[in-house]
Amino acid sequence: MSAEFEKGLVDVxxxxxxxxxxxxxxxxxxxxxxxxxxxxRQSAVxxxxxxxxxxxxxxxxxxxxxxxxxxxxxxxxxxxxRYTGAWGTLKCLFVSLQTESDFSEQDGDNLTHMIxxxxxxxxxxx
Length: 126
What we know:
- The protein is built from two helices and six strands; from the N terminus they run H-E-E-E-H-E-E-E.
- It has helices at 3-13, 66-80, and strands spanning 19-20, 31-40, 53-63, 85-87, 90-107, 110-123.
- The radius of gyration is 16 Å and the shape is elongated.
- The model has no long low-confidence stretch (mean pLDDT 92).
């Protein structure tokens, strides 16, 4: 993931919450964590870039209750799914939600709930 792509993601999600690649320690909830799954770049035989860049992105919406995780995930989905427009210094051509899953995790006495969303994002460059 390029710095421009990451900055664009953080900017787009700013109205929902602070998105980070890792949770701070100790974590504060609700939280949005992201990671790039893959990036596919197209290029011509001579090596020059052609066409849009497609990136797979995982977003984890984490909270102390299942309802809070669902509420955060709804806000992220409303913001990202079918998004087009400015993406930091890039142009976002389209965002598509691919999958969504629910998880919970026990760490001692602490139980956290997570909604994981996977998106495909097409930009002009990454």
